[in-house]
Structure formats: structure tokens, C-alpha cells
Amino acid sequence: xxxxxxxxxxxxxxxxxxxxxxxxxxxxxxxxxxxxxxxxxxxxxxxxxxxxxxxxxxxxxxxxxxxxxxxxxxxxxxxxxxxxxxxxxxxxxxxxxxxxxxxxxxxxxxxxxxxxxxxxxxxxxxxxxxxxxxxxxxxxxxxxxxxxxxxxxxxxxxxxxxxxxxxxxxxxxxxxxxxxxxxxxxxxxxxxxxxxxxxxxxxxxxxxxxxxxxxxxxxxxxxxxxxxxxxxxxxxxxxxxxxxxxxxxxxxxxxxxxxxxxxxxxxxxxxxxxxxxxxxxxxxxxxxxxxxxxxxxxxxxxxxxxxxxxxxxxxxxxxxxxxxxxxxxxxxxxxxxxxxxxxxxxxx
Length: 348
Description:
The protein is an alpha/beta fold.
């Protein structure tokens, strides 16, 4: 076994603290890479607090992971020692169901294996541990190629925030001629703006915070609507083809559905801990749809990373020392980050 240093929550009530644990030895098809940077996702906080479902503790969060390959198995063909590598939200799937065969491992019918807070089939169901640690071992099919042409720290959030917004925009073929509204300008929302603009859509940011307008325009958004202003909301009624909803706090979806055109689609990628309450009349009047989207499959995630390399797209980040993780969580809950915290794992 590989002795590993990380930060873990021992229970939903405890703070993260240093914790030593063991990872499996590198198997024939495995890649071990030393972690250089790990993004901080709002879902890390949700999971260590049991907001969505009971977690597996001790829990080592982190699923926006980039690093450098330290060791490979003797059957590995996709990576060599010294390569840059990354892992996102999942480390395996059944590989055999229809969804997996179509490259949609995120929707594995057996349930994909999460990077942390999951159960690892390689170690008889032992817990998986994430990227708040110094090294990780992953099957090569779930390791991603990372470019040296972009900032490594700013690339890390692409592995969740990036693909979570890229995938639905690609699935619904959002692009030139479409009016896209991005609801919420946080870790997910700022990436949605960048991708929407890159794909050629006319992008509007919907936000409760007037002070984010300058940032939205700097990111490339064409318009900005303050959702607390009834006059601005009234002017926006019936104007959007798509709303990409990145908000993970409770909010009234019915009001936002009124902003869609005929046949408009409201796509949920944020995951509030409370259920949405949607009126049938908010949908019937304009044959509108509410949809959801997870991350992306491995092939699509690599496509996204390659697209970002070509177009020089990365996350806007604040690099932190791991000892400051709780301060980062507190600020993240207040929306006080522009726009993603990333841990420098050299500080572990």
C-alpha cells in the first residue's frame, strides 16, 4: 500500500485536519500521480456536511485534481512518468452498460465510482479518497491529459466547474443565434459565461448581486440583469432560448421560467439541498422544459480540456494554503471568491 498524506473530515461535525491513510499499490492499468493542485468545489462542503446524503467518513474531499505522473503500471499505454495528468469527479464505472459504452460514464447505470465519498471496486469496496492529498492512484482510462500551455492551478477547476458547464452547452448545441442566460456568477457560472461566449451565443448573466456586473462584462457577458429589480426582470420576460442554472442555494425557478422564449430550456447544473417547487403553468404556457445535466464523460472532458487549450480558457482562481481551507469554505458560502479556490498542494 502507498502511505498518503491528506486532509480529512472525521465526521460531519468535525473540521478538516491532517490525516494519513493508504492508497492501493499501482496495478497493471493504473497511473499514480503526485497532486500539485486541487480545486475547491461547493460540493466538497455539501458532502462533508451530509447535505445531500450520508457520507463515508473519514472523508478526503477534492475532485478537481492535477498533478504529475510518478509511476505507471506495466500495461499502461496512455501515460508515461513525468506527464501532466488530471482526474475529475469519477475514477471508474461499470464500463459495460449502454451509457458507459456511449462514453457517458457519468450516467453509468450501475453508478460511477466517485473520486471521493465512494466505494472502490479495486479494494473490496473500501472508501475512495480525493484530491486534498499528496498523491492518487487511478485507472488510466479515467486519467486526463493536461496541457503545459495553461496555468496548472487554473486548469484544476475545469475538471468539475468546467465540464459541468461545457457538457450541457454542447448537448443542447448552444451557439451562434442563441440567447443564453447564465443564472449565478460563481465557480460554475463564470465558466458558463466563458464557454457560452466562446461558442458564439449572446450571453446574459442573471444575478442578485449588482456589484458583479463589471466582472460579468469582463468575462465576456453581453448583458447583465439584476434579478432583485422587478423592472429588469419584466424587461427580460420571454427573451432567452436557454437558462443555465448554476445556483446551489434555494431559489424560485418559476420566476426564471418566465424569462424563457417558446420552447425554451432551463438547465439545472447547481444542486440545492432543498427541492425545487415548479408550477405546471410555468411550463405549459410556452412548452418550456426543465432539464438537468451532470458532468461529462471521459472523452467529452478531454475534448473540453483540449478546447480550453486551443482557446486559452481557464478558471479565475484564488490560490490558497491548505491550512486556510475552512476560511475558504466560509468565504465560498458567502460568495466571496472570484471565482474558484484552488489548493496549492505543496502546502500540505
